[in-house]
Amino acid sequence: MSPASSADDGEPPAGGVPGQDAPGSSPGAPATDAARPRGSRAAQGRAHFQEQLQALEANALGGLDLIVEQLDRVLEALRHQDVELAQMVIADDDRVDGRYLEVHQGILSLLALQAPVAGDLRLVAALLHTIKHIERMGDQCVNIAKLIPLSGYEPPVRPEVLASLAKMGAHARSEVVQCRAAFAARDVELAEDLVRQDREINRLNREIFRMAIDVGDDADTREWAMHMILVARALERIGDNAVDIGEQVAFVVTGLFREFSDSSHPAGVPSDAATDTTPESR
Predict the structure, then answer these.
(1) Which partner from 54, 57, 71, 164 sits 20 to 30 angstroms from 106, CA to CA?
(2) CATH annotation of 46-261
(3) Is residue 246 a contact partner of residue 182, using CB atoms and an 8 Å limit?
(4) How far apart are CA 249 and CA 246, in angstroms?
(5) Confidence band, pLDDT 50/70/90 cuts, at residue 62
(6) What ranges do the domains of the chain cover?
(7) What is the distance between the alpha carbons of residues 211 and 158, in angstroms, rounded to a whole number?
(8) pLDDT tens digit sequence for 164-194
(9) What's the pTM?
(10) What is the C-alpha to C-alpha distance for residues 102 and 264, in angstroms, rounded to an integer?
(11) CA distance 58 to 55
């Protein structure tokens, strides 16, 4: 029998009759993932990636809220020389560490499954830096809390030193809040303004050092004052980390990393003068 006669007898060709559903399928059944257009699957994967990235950013910025809580409590403990409250700050650092690990692992998992580029890649890199700075801020709060009990329950405090420390703490808290707002809004101008507050923190740090040096000859008072120098140093480092997060904001927006201020050179001294090592300059 010729091929033409087979077709005339009504036998369906291999693959089924055109226009009919494949065997075992119901009419009007939705297309499977394999049959779905490739562009549609890519768009869905992209949307899922953006959701994951946004969730990681929100989680990381939530770490700054934890720092504000820790800073408020440790400043209160410092103001009242409250040893019990200081111990609470130390114990609660596990929350900050847990947030760091959660965001860090989430970013690594995202990188393993996706290949972010351009702005998304900059954001991923900035989040890795930001969560590390947040973890360091938490450590500085713990350092302050550990210094409070060293002088005993009724240390020979100097009100003027505590007043300057309170001002430093207020500026540090403001910087933490501001760097969070700048990151969330991608506001480079707000991020750059962090340097202004940081200069005031640095000034107060030097002021507290001078007061501690001139505190007197009483051994107990001098010991307490030395502890307060370390407290001031920890607050200054919190401010520095806030500025570092601000620099990450500029990186996300512009794609270029730059330091807002060069701490390697004294203020007002040109870089070429600071690095001049000729005999005439010594």
Answers:
(1) 71
(2) 1.20.58.220
(3) yes
(4) 5
(5) very high
(6) 46-261
(7) 9
(8) 999 999 999 999 999 999 999 999 999 999 9
(9) 0.76
(10) 34
(11) 5
Q: How far is CA 262 from the centre of its chain?
A: 21
Instruction: List C-alpha distances in Å: 121 to 55, 67, 182.
Output: 15, 26, 19
Separation CA 143–CA 162 (nearest Å): 17
Share of the chain above pLDDT 90, in %: 58
Reading the block at residue 127, the tokens are 């989040």
Q: Cα separations (Å) of 22 from 19, 25, 28, 30, 156?
A: 9, 6, 11, 13, 89
Token pair belonging to 261: 């201020």
Pair 165, 233: CB distance under 8 Å: no
Residue 255: exposed, middle, or buried by beta-carbon count in 10 A (0-12, 13-18, 19+)?
Answer: exposed
Average pLDDT over residues 265-282: 42
**Calpha distance 141→229 (Å, rounded):** 14
Hey, what are 241's tokens?
């980390």
Per-position DSSP letters for the chain, written without gaps between them: --HHHHHHTTPPPTT--TTSPPTT--TTPPPPTTTS-HHHHHHHHHHHHHHHHHHHHHHHHHHHHHHHHHHHHHHHHHHHT-HHHHHHHHHTHHHHHHHHHHHHHHHHHHHHH----HHHHHHHHHHHHHHHHHHHHHHHHHHHHHHGGGG-SS----HHHHHHHHHHHHHHHHHHHHHHHHHHHT-HHHHHTHHHHHHHHHHHHHHHHHHHHTS-S-HHHHHHHHHHHHHHHHHHHHHHHHHHHHHHHHHHHHS----SS-TTS-TT--HHHHT--SGGG-
Both tokens assigned to 58: 């929100």
Q: How big is the chain, counted in residues?
A: 282
Q: According to the 3-state scheme, what is the secondary structure of 177-239?
A: HHHHHHHHHCCHHHHHCHHHHHHHHHHHHHHHHHHHHCCCCCHHHHHHHHHHHHHHHHHHHHH
